[in-house]
Amino acid sequence: MCGESLSGVRGGARRRGEVKLPANQESMNTKPAIEFAHNGIEVSQTTLVIPTYCGGPADPNPSLFGKGIRAIYPYEWRKSFTREIVDRTYDALVLRSPWMELTFLPDWGFHLYRAVDRVTGRDLFHRPAVMKPAHNAIRGAYVAGGVEFNFPIGHNAMTWNRIGLNIRKTDEGVTVLFQDVERRSGMHWAAGVTLTAGMRGVLFDQFLYNATPLPQPWYFWLNAGLVAHSSLRFIFPTDRMLGHFEGSFLETLGWYSFPIHQGHDYGRYADIPEPIGLFSPTNAAGWFGVWYDDWDFGVARWAAPWQVGGQKLWSWGTSEEGCLWGQIAADQELPVPEIQSGRPETQMDRQILRPYETVAHREWWFPASGIGGLQAASRFVAVHAIPRDGQTLLKCSTVQAVPGCHINVNGQRLPAEMDLAPGRVQEVAIPLPCQELMRIQVRTPRGAVLEWDRNSAPLAITLETIADSLEPLVGASAESWYLRGARAQRMLRPDLALRFYQISRAPDNAHRLFLQCVAVRLKRDASSASRQPSVNDTICQLSKKLDRALGVSLMARFERRWAGLAEETLRIPSDQETEDYLRLAAAVQYTALGQSREKEALWHEVQSPGVKASKGCWGHSTEVSPDPSLYWAWGETDRQGLVSWLERHPDDGAAHFSLGCLLAESGQLELAVTHLREAARRRPDDSVVRTTLGRVCLEWQKPAEALRELEVAVAGNPTNAAAWVWLDQALGFMDARNAEWLRRVRMAPSSVQSTDDFCEMHARLATDLQLYDEAAEILAGHWFHPYELTHQLRSLWVRIHRRKAITLARDGDFEEAQRKIEIALTYPENLQLGRPRRTFDAPTLYTAGRIMELAAKADTARAYYQRAAEEDHPGPTPAKPWGALATWELGNPDQARIRLIALEDEANRCLAAVFQPDLESQLQLVADLSRRFREHSRPNFDELRKIL
């Protein structure tokens, strides 16, 4: 059940690099002894033996200066992997009811490992036959499968760490409780998984508590890995879904008609062409699920739609790029698909948990079988209507016992009654053809247990109803209106978003939040004459900064209005308590954007938050005494505790180090360097301390000191791979990456040379020194573990071989140059990247065309130009100008100019809204290339070499 070939299904999937597993892929001890039984649930402990890939140790260096969901401090990186596989014994906790069996592995973090339907013997979710960590969680190591709990943003930070499991006896049955404090935010959370004797399914409860005086952004999602099979279908009661994209704009790709979109059936696992996530934000039915046609079996989820509105499918697709992830993450031919459930409605949205606020929600997941498909579901029953002899046969698969049911069809009650019971398929004959069925209800004397209106169109975006009732909500906070606007923008409703943004900034709004935030920022920044020469310049700079940082990209062109509002706001009276609150509110926006240093800087200015700690949902106070001996520390409480500790113990180097890390992450670099220097003075041989000090000095723009400290770090511990990588950056900052440095890099210890980061750094160094053969050999000789769909390694691979091809062409060796171009167009398996359905090879193809022209091979050159011109993508990608230029080379100058002008305008529009420097540089490249290539003059080969 862990994988089946797609042979005969669109394109098929190619098996490669298969790892032979031991015969005992999973073995359990003899039947586990029952520890106790409660309300019909048996609870036991046992062990499982599962083949597991060995991983290296976590990176001991603090992960400072991350951005977005990759800002993982104070957690450490877990991205050291090997290809060695061993049998590993895992502790296991097993819950067993008459209908279900659940297995939990404390060593597998916040996951439900296995859920078995005892009626059919099938797994509800993918059960890993081999534990193979891949680098696609926020901290690195991640194993696909089971059910994972995601909080507060992205994959759970503890997804590959051992955790404790609490077992609770409840009136409903037995609950296994996961509980933790999320160390980046300080928020508490718990997830309960409950099994009851009377339900053929699983109940999930989530409890979230903000134990800090700072508003915190969050979402909470369950990721359920599915058994990969060619007959798998995704069932969502909607006709359109939103494509998942979370780049610099935190937005979506656009609407997909569902299930059929551009000739592909996105409801069928075997026909999804590329990696894609699709959200169903318009679905108010409360249920969705999957069905396996070959097995007559499926899985459904139901939750109150007004509470848990998030519904999503994720598939890696069946292209070479997608199927490669079957090997990367599961050692199987087909990659593990997922269905996901959570709140809010998409993973680009963020909800705000206010200081000391608690929220909770629950949802039901259950199997269904024997009914031929899935057309509607509730928490009690799943149904499927089948045409038969001019009538309709309604099949019901029951989750819970419901006696005395009757059926209403189009408002009329059928005479027959039935008793629904778990594990039984109930059939009801309806004397109407399927096409005449309008509304079906399964009812009891106490109310409906299922309502199914088969002909109703999916509900319109719920934002419309909010827009129609603006007046009663005008008194809501500006923060709430801003969040509504951000959501409307992501749902591709700019007109509605603009209305919400305008309300959030209206003078009569209850809090005037953003106007006053501007005032607070201006009062602080205008006082720094060294950085801002005048108040007017300050206003202009802040207007741009706030347009980006607060996310109001629709109003990015309204800089004059921003400046006018800022000048007006300078006159708003504000006492200290108000300013403190506004700083906290602004910190919410910074946190949502992953700008932790700005958030912490605002927090640090707050003198009296004005809120008192209360007891959380677990009934205990949130006051925590900091332990100054902790190597990792985070948050204001830890900072204050460390300061107090150092006043009494000034020679504690570990405390100086922890405090220095905290200060560095919050942007107070000068003070951070002071404490890190003290730590280095007391612990001179500690390579981690020296490396961290060097990194912070580099961030503080002190490259000379950074270079000294990183040299000491490498000399003190040559096996610290991070010290080598950061030393390379320091040398690059001082323009000193030369042949002598390359010689030292070649002599690094083998344990360092075997790491991904060092190999990439070594290859980039060799490339910059024009040693292309050495760089290619480095990349080809290492097995990398890149993060999800990132393509930096492929970009380096392409750059190496393309530059080598240009060098060979200049020397007249056109045949070898063409061979290098063809190598550049490959997707080496060791880089863990398969060929995507949409490639970004236009620059390389255009270069190949120019080389073939120089070789007097006009037909071959034209073929390369044609391939480059046909390559197109939505959005202003850096490859697009080359496709337009290839169009010109093919003799279509008017069409080329039209494409380039449109591309330049598109890039400039995006530049007005982007706030991430890396994306801004890419967009600037697109705009510059477009401007350059719209000219009539044809660039010569030397000019092309400069551009490349």
Folded structure, characterized:
- The protein has 948 residues and is α+β, with helices and mostly antiparallel strands.
- It is 35% helix and 23% strand.
- The strands form eight sheets. Strands 6-11-17-27-26-23-19-20 form an eight-stranded antiparallel sheet, with no helix packed on it.
- Helix 6 crosses helix 7.
- The chain is globular and about 90 Å long.
Task: Describe the protein's topology.
Elements: E1 27-28, E2 34-38, E3 41-55, E4 81-96, E5 100-104, E6 111-112, E7 114-117, E8 122-123, E9 134-137, E10 140-142, E11 147-150, E12 166-169, E13 174-181, E14 188-195, E15 202-209, E16 216-218, E17 220-225, E18 232-235, E19 240-244, E20 252-257, E21 260-261, E22 264-265, E23 276-279, E24 287-292, E25 297-302, E26 310-315, H1 320-330, E27 338-343, E28 351-353, E29 358-369, E30 376-377, E31 381-388, E32 391-398, E33 402-409, E34 412-420, E35 425-430, E36 439-444, E37 447-453, H2 463-467, H3 478-490, H4 494-504, H5 513-525, H6 535-549, H7 559-569, H8 576-592, H9 596-605, H10 635-648, H11 653-665, H12 669-682, H13 687-699, H14 703-716, H15 721-733, H16 739-746, H17 750-753, H18 756-768, H19 772-780, H20 792-810, H21 814-824, H22 842-854, H23 858-870, H24 880-889, H25 893-913, H26 917-933, H27 941-947
Helix pairs in contact: 3-4, 5-6, 5-7, 5-8, 6-7, 8-9, 10-11, 11-12, 12-13, 13-14, 13-15, 14-15, 18-19, 18-20, 19-20, 20-21, 20-22, 21-22, 22-23, 22-24, 23-24, 24-25, 25-26
